[in-house]
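Task 17 of the worksheet. Students: predict the tertiary structure of the chain below and write it out as structure tokens. Keep your answer in the requested format; marks are given for formatting as well as content.
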Amino acid sequence: MVKPTNINSDYREEERLTCVLVLDTFNNYTNEIVSHTSLPLCLWPVDGRPLLDYTIHTLIRSGIQEIILLATSYSYEIRSYIMNSHWLQTYPKLIRFIPCKEARSLGDCLKDLEQENIINNHFILLYGNGTLITNEKLNNLFNIHKENIKKDKNCIMTLVYRQLDSNHFEHPSYTDDQHLCIIRDANTYRLYDYSTEYLDRYEISLDLLEKPNVTIETLYCPLDCHVAVCSPDVLHLFKDNFDYSTINEFVKGIVRDEEIAGHTIYSYLYETGYFLSVHNLRLYMKATFDILRRWSYPLVPEIIASMHKQQLSTITNPTLPQIKLNDSYLSFYNICYPIIYDKHNIYKQGDIQLDRLSNIQQDVFIGYKSQILSGVCLRSSLIGQSCIIGKNTKIENSIIWNHVQIGENCIIKNSIICDNVVIRNNVQIDKECILCKNVIIGTNVHLNQHMTIIASNSITSTNVVDEIEIDEDISAPLKNVKRSNSKQRSSSTMSSEKSVSEKSISLSIEETITSNSDLVGIDGFGRQLSFISTHDDQTKPIEHTDDDDDDINDNDKSQLNAFDAWGYRIEPIENRDLSHDDEDNEIKPKQYRLSNLKKPSDQPSDIQSEDENSEIDDSEDPSSETGSINETNDVSEFQQEVIRTLERAYRQKLHMENIIVELNMLKPTYDVSPTEFDRSIVRAVFLLPFEKKISNSETTNYWNSLKLTMDQITQFILKNYMKITNEQSQISLLNGLDSICLKHIQPIGERIVNILNYLYENDVIDEQWILQWYENKQKKIENNELIIKPEEKIYYDKLKQFVEWLQNAESEDDDQDDED
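Model answer:
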């Protein structure tokens, strides 16, 4: 492995090649499981070293001169790993650690980084747990990004993907949470559309096909490397837009607002090389086995081990605080034992006991001081340090951590067994099970697939807390401070004391639970951790306390993802036969986007027909027959806020870009769906003159006031959110306008000709959508699906008048074209 010769040189800040690692998946399922182990996911063992080791090795090979680690939880564990590894001894200027105390999302982490004011040049961002395994050097990505900027000065980000060599559904590196469809220019690789939704078909805007010198190509489900080369402006955009909480939201927002903000995003597609971003448990297992199979060479166990110098478990470097490590980390921070590589990809770490009658087939790693007894069959598995595997046990495609005891005649397939687990005789464990720390599985127990067994409600440490940063002047960790788990990151900072006995430093607290003897046996200990609506056999709720209520509300939006810890897509609640009682205090993972799921997914448009809505409203409100409707009582608080925003923008003559940013910031504040957002925009535009009485000496009626606001700001608002090439948006605009006109015949409905003509002449709406929408409306009237009330006749007559004029104008244009 080539080592950079100048990594410790005193580069000027703006010249340093920087990489930012966000060490969190922000997936509630993964974080919940991780909270019952002793390590964050980025430090889980992979063939004798922590997962993060492989990423740091890659970055050093790539000539990266500064690595910034952003950690939302497990700050003490991650920082202890860095301080007790050889990284700071060999490369003292390489790694900078920043705890993000209150971060709930990637966007929050980048906002914290922006506040540090340390990024002044382009940087590589590794997100999705920040652990990338690749045998390619990444420094060329800086040059690629700079070339994109030369071609397009508005380029702020270059996303990195890997072309899959086979059908993505069959490729082992593909998991459901990587579903992606990209539309880009085949020549420049500029992104024009970006979707992570599961759709039967994807629509390409006609505008794209008509762009000069643009050749459109579609990338369907490339392998997402979770790598982005960013300009410093990216941090400012995350800070200014509160609705950007993920990379997906950021990219969609930039592409959508391109005409307003002027920013662009490009992509780069690797066609060769090994790439794997480890952000779920399935990919964690795949990374472990791929490294054993040497697909990631030169990132292989014996080379990685040879690069680590022997070191004690306590760092004595006078420039760094001395931190003693508890037993959970001895396997990582103690002496790095040499690894012997044998044929059939068999790796032996230091001194091991291997019975001559055991059967070690292929792709196996056996850790230091582990004992493999007679008749044991191992295939494609990792055995950690100080483990005992009993006679005639078969282990296949599984990962066994440290200090694990497995009895005789056991069968373990495709599972993860964490530290200090005891598995007694004749146990069978099916695929994708996780046994968390200190679990005991009794004799003759059979665990079905997809089970997560825990032995404590959480594993906390008395010496640390995520919110406490280790000060260089402190020689010992802090006392009486508990590490918050993944659902308690925003808890208030707990008090601490510097004076503490060394005994208390190494202690840990494990909240005991009631064991389920029916599941783990009478001689076992543990219970199942279940997530409602993850798998058919997991229907128990996650237990939580009253203190977590605020966190759960936020998690509904960001952390209770649509994918479980293994990367499988979770079936929506509305498609499952689950009861909807509110009496149980449960975390229901698919409800984080409940506002988007109020209507069936097969509905052809974003919103129901507004004329249907108006019928329902009129039938439920008797006062609607008199025409005296108080619109303020009908609209939501969010819509009123949009109206107030537009009013302020009109009176203060704000720039359009600032208005768009402010409206986008309202979306996460009020937690509205895209459909509700678009509907509120339409209603606010046409109700603004009506409710706020915007007028001057020359404006004495609704139409004049509306035209004033449309000329100055609101027509541009509609153009931004209701694209003229998007049928769904245009029909939504017409439905919204129709609903308002029917509720306010005086003064809005009677002005429908003026309004539609203005929208048509200013290219806010296209005639094809007007004619299509009107035709559908007429069919409902003919089929008696829509009844015209007497007071509505004036509106429909004027609407018909405009449509006939539009049709005649179109036929005249056709005749003129024929004559030409």
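Marker's comment: The longest strand covers residues 155-162. Residues 11 and 65 are 9 Å apart (CA to CA).
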